[in-house]
Amino acid sequence: MISAIRDLIRTARSVAVLTGAGISAESGIPTFRDAGGLWRNFRAEDLATPQAFARDPKLVWEWYNWRRSLIAQAEPNAGHYALAELEKRIPDFTLITQNVDGLHDRAGSMRLLKIHGDIWTLRCTACGCERRDLRPSLPQLPPLCECGGPCQGFARPGVVWFGEGLPPAIWAKSEEAAANADVFLVIGTSAMVYPAAGLVHLAQASGAKVVEVNPAETPVSRMVAFTWRAPAAEALPLLVNQTE
Ligand code: OAD
Question: Which of 59, 90, 146, 208 meets the CB 3.0–4.6 Å disulfide criterion with 203?
Answer without folding.
Answer: 208
